[in-house]
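queue> pop job 88
queue> type: inverse folding (structure -> sequence)
queue> payload:
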């Protein structure tokens, strides 16, 4: 017998599990588009793109679970062009869209930062991990910028952009997934010799060079593939429904 969960029950469980009420985010967290009242199959992915929506529709899923959803602050609110096509596909197939941004970055076990640490073999400092968005720790077995960058490339299967001297000695590392290049200064003030994030900006290069620290831009998508997978596994375990992760390739 195929197990199901009500959309309302699932959303409530997710909001409690990820403590969404604690975050002032750039987009609404939780159920963004309402679809079927019950769910037996979820397609998860990093971003609610048309490609991911099409997979969910083809597989007759009841919901999409993503890190990057819709309705971001400051964007044009009109439903035009690609936004119309995305929404039309969701509604035509009665698909729920569940999205969790900062709460999924910050969760101490299921979050993107926690899961990136697991994948890269980073040892987090408990006192700093509670921050949620900027973590500090070390990488046992890697003591130079070149060694750290090499592991990032191997584990994420992506060539990172690396700023800094290859033989830079490293004891303390800071990391935050996604587009967290603006946290570089905070990482430096926290005593990190290397900062790992997803994206880089022009000014980040100058700041890293002038501060004498390493900066690794490992890819926004590449660093944020793991939180939504861990969350999907937790849902499957809690409710006994099917959750399939689909990795829509993104070079950024």
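queue> result:
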């Amino acid at each position: 017998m195929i197990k199901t969960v009500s959309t309302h029950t699932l959303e409530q469980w997710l909001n409690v599990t990820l403590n969404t009420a604690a975050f002032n985010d750039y987009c609404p967290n939780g159920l963004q588009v309402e679809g079927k009242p019950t769910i037996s199959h979820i397609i998860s992915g990093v971003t609610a793109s048309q490609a991911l929506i099409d997979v969910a529709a083809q597989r007759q899923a009841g919901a999409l679970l993503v890190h990057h959803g819709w309705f971001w602050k400051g964007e044009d609110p009109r439903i035009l062009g690609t936004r119309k096509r995305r929404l039309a596909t969701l509604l035509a197939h009665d698909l729920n869209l569940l999205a969790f941004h900062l709460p999924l970055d910050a969760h101490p076990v299921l979050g993107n930062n926690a899961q990136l640490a697991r994948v890269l073999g980073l040892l987090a400092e408990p006192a700093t991990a509670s921050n949620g968005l900027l973590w500090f720790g070390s990488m046992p077995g890697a003591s130079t910028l070149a060694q750290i960058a090499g592991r990032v490339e191997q584990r994420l299967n992506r060539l990172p952009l690396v700023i800094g001297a290859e033989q830079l000695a490293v004891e303390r590392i800071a990391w935050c997934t996604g587009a967290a290049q603006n946290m570089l200064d905070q990482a430096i003030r926290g005593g990190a010799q290397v900062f790992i994030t997803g994206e880089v900006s022009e000014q980040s290069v100058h700041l890293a060079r002038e501060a004498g620290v390493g900066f690794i831009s490992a890819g926004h998508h590449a660093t944020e593939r793991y939180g939504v997978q861990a969350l999907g596994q937790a849902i499957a375990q809690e409710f006994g429904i099917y959750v399939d992760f689909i990795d829509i390739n993104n070079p950024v």
